[in-house]
Amino acid sequence: MTLSGSAHLIAGNTETIPDVLALLEQQGIATVANPDVYVRTYTHFGIDEARSLRERASMGALGEGNRIFVIAASGMTNEAQNALLKTLEEPPAGSAFFIIVQSPETLLPTLRSRLQILDLGRSHTEGLVDAKSFLAAAPAKRLDLLKPLLEKGDDDRRDIGGIIAFLSSLERALAKHPEDLAAIYRARKYMSDKGALVKPLLEQVALLTPRI
């Protein structure tokens, strides 16, 4: 695989990180015990995380090669994406970025345009809720199916990336019925916003999306 530019986008989650590291090894970049390969995972990637990443990227390499940043994020706020955009437009010298998100299509178009999309040959975007089962269920059952998505982790945050991946799977399942996507579009639009009302947005999806 030929890498172009210094910023790359991969569909996946934390399980995709070994695939990215294997790709780096194929490119002749040692990833074991290499202080210039920075790997981090985030359940929430906000403005503070974006600023911290830029600060780290601005530091010089400790070895003779480039600094490599492998970032897996369940979700990114629009504010963080705009801050990250500034980093990618003027990347620090000798730095390369590999951004892993579950649903690349949900990122801002301006950010996606700065990233080379990489297909590593397999997907790790399976969601907690099956789209076809959800669409076939009655509203009351749908609300029950949503419970895994509404659970909070140890950091008291919901997996926004997983929720967006679920919404994207609904959109694909309803590709032939674009008139039925209004509630899904609305939920996706606001889901990554700071302070988004996640439960009501998903409940609207459950109640307003037609049963098929």
Relevant terms:
five-stranded parallel beta sheet, alpha/beta, 42% helix, 2 domains, 212 residues, 10 helices, elongated
Provide structural commentary.
The protein is an alpha/beta fold and 212 residues long. Helix content is 42%, strand content 13%. It contains ten helices and five strands, in the order βαβαβαβαβαααααα. The chain has a five-stranded parallel beta sheet with strand order 2-3-4-1-5, with helices on one face. α3 (78-89) links the parallel β3 and β4. The longest helix has 14 residues, at 160-173.
Topology:
Elements: E1 7-11, H1 17-26, E2 37-42, H2 47-57, E3 67-73, H3 78-89, E4 95-101, H4 109-112, E5 116-118, H5 131-136, H6 139-145, H7 147-150, H8 160-173, H9 182-191, H10 198-208
Parallel strand pairs: 1-4, 1-5, 2-3, 3-4
Helix pairs in contact: 2-3, 6-10, 8-9, 9-10
What is the CATH topology descriptor of the largest domain?
Rossmann fold
* Secondary structure: helix percent: 40-55%
Mean pLDDT: 87
The helix count comes to 10
Instruction: Give me the secondary-structure category.
Output: alpha/beta
Our count of domains comes out at 2
> Which segments are poorly predicted (pLDDT under 50) over 5 or more consecutive residues?
none
The strands making up the biggest β-sheet line up spatially as: 2-3-4-1-5
Shape: elongated
DSSP strand content: 5-15%
Task: Describe, in short, the structure shown.
With 212 residues, the protein is of the alpha/beta class. The chain has ten helices and five strands. The protein starts with 6 loop residues before the first strand and ends with a helix.
